[in-house]
Automatic annotation (TrEMBL):
<dbReference type="InterPro" id="IPR003959">
    <property type="entry name" value="ATPase_AAA_core"/>
</dbReference>
<dbReference type="Pfam" id="PF16193">
    <property type="entry name" value="AAA_assoc_2"/>
</dbReference>
<keyword id="KW-0067">ATP-binding</keyword>
<keyword id="KW-0235">DNA replication</keyword>
<dbReference type="Pfam" id="PF00004">
    <property type="entry name" value="AAA"/>
</dbReference>
<dbReference type="GO" id="GO:0005524">
    <property type="term" value="F:ATP binding"/>
</dbReference>
<dbReference type="InterPro" id="IPR008921">
    <property type="entry name" value="DNA_pol3_clamp-load_cplx_C"/>
</dbReference>
<keyword id="KW-0547">Nucleotide-binding</keyword>
<dbReference type="GO" id="GO:0006261">
    <property type="term" value="P:DNA-templated DNA replication"/>
</dbReference>
<comment type="similarity">
    <text>Belongs to the AAA ATPase family. RarA/MGS1/WRNIP1 subfamily.</text>
</comment>
<protein>
    <recommendedName>
        <fullName>Replication-associated recombination protein A</fullName>
    </recommendedName>
</protein>
<dbReference type="InterPro" id="IPR027417">
    <property type="entry name" value="P-loop_NTPase"/>
</dbReference>
<dbReference type="InterPro" id="IPR051314">
    <property type="entry name" value="AAA_ATPase_RarA/MGS1/WRNIP1"/>
</dbReference>
<comment type="function">
    <text>DNA-dependent ATPase that plays important roles in cellular responses to stalled DNA replication processes.</text>
</comment>
<dbReference type="GO" id="GO:0017116">
    <property type="term" value="F:single-stranded DNA helicase activity"/>
</dbReference>
<dbReference type="InterPro" id="IPR003593">
    <property type="entry name" value="AAA+_ATPase"/>
</dbReference>
<dbReference type="Pfam" id="PF12002">
    <property type="entry name" value="MgsA_C"/>
</dbReference>
């Protein structure tokens, strides 16, 4: 075999791309015997697909292998560069290919989430009529980024980040392959070096192979001609371990969801962990602070009103101090909100009230609750029978403040926890008093209300 100049060829990640489906590693839930993609390819069935998954899991490679396996024509477009003109030209090319060769066409659109609405609209009629079949690839959730009409005409296949076993297979292939890989360089990885590489890759095969190539090429051979890659050699090529995070994408929402659910679940340790993950990845700390404010109201509420005070104070403290000192205030608020007694009764009450307001928005305001700034309005009964609470010893009087059709409606139901627990019996007594007062109200007054 002729020795290659490894340093003068394409990057290792490109050279090691699988050339057949048998070489492809991972995604067994799609490609395994009897699984959806295995069945589609076995029958050479054409269907527009969107491959959704994290970077480096094999979306582009899999798309090319599918085209090869189905013996179809491929048109490759990048959503970053393609416009509506390119889409129209792709449709014309697909028509010509079909007339000339009777071959169907796949249009592969990398980073399909970058297409704007008008470009996606331009795709729609061609996909709908079967002029070509769409193969989209995206790292972003298609339900957020792809218009509904186009999404409804495609099957979304979810790809997973590669697991440690998959990455190890890819690593060993690259080290042993003398034609496309690093086999001629006789590189050997220590166990610690391999572990660091696998961890630093974050499930991304491209990152793994790029780091491996750099570590191998920067390690000189020993007198025996072997390149022994120690852990420090790998650490040296890692400026910073890449955080698996995208502030505008799917992982952003996954992490903030985990953070909020840890707060709601009263786990301060998990809340601190997810918050630290976001901050380490470069998330805006004020965004984290805003989520704390939401949780303090939505999930703690009046069970502990000071949770909201803590969260708002943390937001303001961070504005004054910035990082790193201000992050301590965020951590303090996160721990407080996590440990506080929980109640979503105000959140639930607001949802109920909104629903009721939407359904009964034409109910007139009761006469006794109306303002009467003029003599005419007073003569018409505005404000009549209104009871001014401050005129009563307790500063409260049994009264109905709803339209008559909604009298007795209950939206707010305090939980038996924290501060709310102290108010439950008190509120129940008042509601019973109002009900009793209403039942004994003279008919004439009732009608005026």
């Amino acid at each position: 075999m002729k020795r290659q100049d490894i340093t003068g060829t394409a990057p290792l990640a490109d050279r090691m791309r699988p050339k057949t489906l048998e070489e492809f590693v991972g995604q067994e839930h799609l490609l395994g015997e009897g699984r959806i993609l295995h069945r589609l390819l076995e029958k050479k069935h054409f269907q527009s697909l969107i491959l959704w998954g994290p970077p480096g899991c094999g979306k582009t490679t899999l798309a090319h292998l599918m085209v090869q396996h189905t013996d179809a024509h491929l048109i490759f477009l990048s959503a970053v560069m393609a416009g509506t003109k390119d889409i129209r030209e792709a449709a014309e090319e697909a028509r010509r290919v079909w007339i000339r060769t009777q071959k169907k066409t796949w249009v592969f659109l990398d980073e399909i989430h970058r297409l704007n609405k008008s470009q996606q609209d331009a795709l729609l009629p061609h996909v709908e009529k079967g002029i070509f079949y769409l193969l989209g690839a995206t790292t972003e959730n298609p339900s957020f980024e792809v218009i509904r009409p186009l999404l409804s005409r495609c099957r979304v296949l979810t790809l997973k980040a590669l697991e440690a076993g998959h990455l190890k297979t890819i690593l060993q292939r690259a080290l042993s392959d003398g034609e496309r890989g690093l086999g001629l360089l006789r590189a050997e990885l220590s166990q610690d070096a391999e572990g660091i590489l696998l961890e630093a890759s974050g499930g991304d095969a491209r990152v793994l192979l790029n780091l491996l190539e750099m570590a191998v090429l920067t390690t000189p051979p020993d007198p025996d001609g072997k390149r022994r890659i120690a852990a420090q050699s790998v650490v040296d090529v890692l400026e910073r371990r890449p955080a698996h995070y995208d502030k505008s994408g799917e992982e952003h929402y996954n992490l903030i969801s985990a953070f909020h659910k840890s707060l709601r679940g009263s786990d301060p340790d998990a809340a601190l962990y997810w918050m630290a993950r976001m901050l380490e990845a470069g998330e805006d700390p004020l965004y984290v602070a805003r989520r704390l404010i939401v949780a303090a109201s939505e999930d703690v509420g009046l069970a502990d009103p000071f949770a909201l005070v803590q969260a708002v104070n943390a937001f303001q403290a961070y504005q004054m101090l910035g990082s790193p000192e201000g992050e301590l205030m965020l951590a303090q608020a996160a721990v407080y909100v996590a440990l506080a007694p929980k109640s979503n009764s105000v959140y639930t009450a607001l949802k109920k009230a909104r629903g009721s307001a939407g359904a009964t928005g034409t109910e007139p305001v009761p006469m006794h609750l109306r303002n009467a700034p003029t003599q005419l309005l007073k003569e018409l009964g505005y404000g009549r029978y209104y009871k001014y609470p401050h005129d009563y010893p307790e500063g409260w009087v049994p009264e109905t403040y709803f339209p008559s059709s909604l009298a007795g409606t209950v939206f707010y139901e305090p939980r038996p926890r924290g501060w709310e627990g102290k108010w439950r019996e008190y509120l129940d007594r008042r509601r019973q008093a109002v009900q009793k007062e209403r039942a004994s109200r003279p008919k004439k007054e009732e009608e005026s209300v």
